[in-house]
Amino acid sequence: MTASESDGAGGLAAALAAPRLVHDREYARGKAAVAAALFDEPQPRPSIGRYELRRRLGAGGMGEVYAAHDPALGREVALKLTRSDRAGPGEEARLLREARLLARLSHPHVVQIHEVGAVDGHVYIAMALIRGRTLRAWQREAARPWRATVRLYVAAARGLAAAHAAGLVHCDFKPDNALVDTDEHVYVVDFGLARVAGPAPEAGTDGSPGGVGSTLGGTVGYAAPEQLVGRAPDARSDIYSLCCSLFEALHGWVPGRDPAPPARRRPEHPRWLDRELARGMAAAPERRHPTLAALCAALERDPGRTRRRIGLAGGLLALGGSAGAWLPDPPAAIDACAAVDRGLDAAWNPAQRAALAAAFRGSGLTLAAGAWQRVDASLGAYVQAWQAARRQLCETSALHSPGRLEARRICLERSAAAVAALIERLAAGERAAVERSIAAVEALPRLEACAGTGASALVSRSTGAPARDGGEALRRTLITARAYAATGDLAEARRLAESALARADLAVDPAARADALLAVGELRAERGEIEAAEAALLEAVDTAEAAGEDDLAASTWLALTTLAARQQIAPERAQLWARRAAAALDRLGDQGLRRAELEFARAIAAYHAGHHDETARLEREVLARLEAVDGPQAARIRAQQGLANAYEALGREAEARATFEAALAAADAFYGARHPQYARVAHDMATLLIQQGEGARARGLLEAALAVWTEAHGAAGLEAARVHTTLAHEAVQAGEFGRAEHHSRRALAIYGRVLPPGHEDLPAALINLGVVEFWRGDHEGALAAYREAAALQDRSLPAGHVHRAITANNIGESLLALDRPAEALAEFTAAEPIARAAPTVDDELLGLILAGKGAALLALGEADRALAALVEARAATARVAGSAAAVAELDARLSALGRAR
Q: Which residues bind ATP (predicted)?
């Protein structure tokens, strides 16, 4: 039983033919299929937890494996279910414990576990769906050179060794429990009999006749002798099973199970290999190789090749004269890898760490100490992981094709260059770099991308040395540019990216040019140069797709989608780019971080469009994807913040508050309370607290946020202006109009200083000031502010924009307060059709406009028209949640009007 898509001939039809032999679930599924056929009813798709079962891949003694769909992450998985008749309560707990241990194991030659759980009395394991065949099927496809066979078994041995390091023994390794994908990459699967290494439990402790010991037998012919008699297996038991399997692959029969055929030897099969296998199959565990690493070293030590190398070297020495009369023994392959993991020593060492710590202290930021602790730990962990990956690549080089080996090597070298470039930027101690340092380290290239088949997609298809060398030089420039961008120096980042683009030769290395265009486009977008950014990104995607660079194309479609979402580009183009990004990621099988980024961009677009239900759905999906791939904490905090804002817009205040609290706690733990990202979450939460009447806590959060922004970017930054605006709102709610005016004028002064003419935030700041002046009783001052805002909107907003209706209504209210009803009526009359024509009618706004219109008409002596306007105003206002007080006020006005008539 495997996680392979190719197994399980007969599928569901075979299961339905004998339902009681497999699982009651199959029986129920068969009944549903019959009912659907007889009564023309839709057949519900069976599911386990959130997973929808698609087809059965195979069945075995411990359960079944299905291909299933994970709707939360939009991917196919292999779902293994244990058999309920084989698992008592103790066995279920054991399987859950050991499967969760395995889920923490990540190794290129072990199938990746995504989730472990229990439902309806069954343990299920969701794992990667490997598209390929079993190792046994691979062996039978064609006659294989013995070295090719040994190479795959050594790969499987390394996967088993990783499980041993995690404290698990497989207990049932055989050729059917390893998969070979289309790139001849091996994965060990089916840890259904795996157990934590340690003493065997007493028989019958789980209520079964043999207790857990009855599960230790494995498969006859492959199981070690100690397993068959019920003794606790250990790592040497897996050595026995692997050697039996490799012996069968080379000889065609299994010792201890099959009768030995007449003695014969394949010409290419060396005797030393049989000697190593005989040692691995010794009856006494202590006579076998002590570890799988020792077995791998023995299998990879090919005496024939060693002799040929020595002979060739001796000939060259003879031709070269008296260079020496002897040669030392060749070092073991592992020794040749002793120095390959030192590539980051120059960038990350005790002296460099001390210099970085001093640079952070020298920034003068309050957040620097906490940021350095996080950066120091994260960089150290990243460097360690890189070193382990680079050494492992060297040690397993014989297991990879030359193309894949080179792709992985280049991928790791680019990751090292990114680390070195970032460390160099942080060493400058610039305030912006220190502020962004935590997120910048977290955004370093994920090393998992350099493993498996994914690395090939990241490396250019250009194979010529000039293209490769020139392209890599350009990419080093782009890596440096991205380090500058990540640490806040967008001007230098753009200069570097554009210099790389100027040198990028389309004919020599189209991938390098596409990457340069991508970087330039993203940096133009950061500066708000929308048309220029779009042009660069569209050229990048054309270049990448023409060159077959699918990974670059996917990243560029994603950049276009993000551009469209943030800048509110035409919805039809935004939707097209999002579909193209999704299709590109589907082709790559990428359901991880980039898919989460795509859904986040779509969530931003949905929020701007007022589709808050869709925003909340997308943000929840982003969080699920990030959780599944252990995504960056910075991205999770942003998604939580976006989800909370969507809930608030939907009026789901309890959910909004709980989500804000979670985001605030996460930001505090990850960044610290003196960090700008913490301040962003605190600001948004404060707006909700103001609505909920908790002005005191809101004011505390806002004043703390203002202090953070003032320290980080000075008193005249845009983020500080946003906080001043919200503090003005809070002050109005508290009835402190002098304080409200102070904050409103501070926000307006900042916007006027730093924003370009025509920016939409300028009229918004004037309107906020007008509201404050109105509530202070300075209606002339309010009218002046509103009219200045309207003049700016005339130049920047299209006719019919709803913001024009809001401003006209505010002008009308000021004119009413100044006893100028005829002018007020003109404003309300202009605002009404705009409010009615809005894509999503805002009943609160429409109610305000109609109420103002009714008041103006009443003041002008037109009682009938006033009554009609007020009746409709009451109906619109009553449709707004939480509007009881406003409705009561309108009722009172209608009652007074009725009495007057």
A: 80
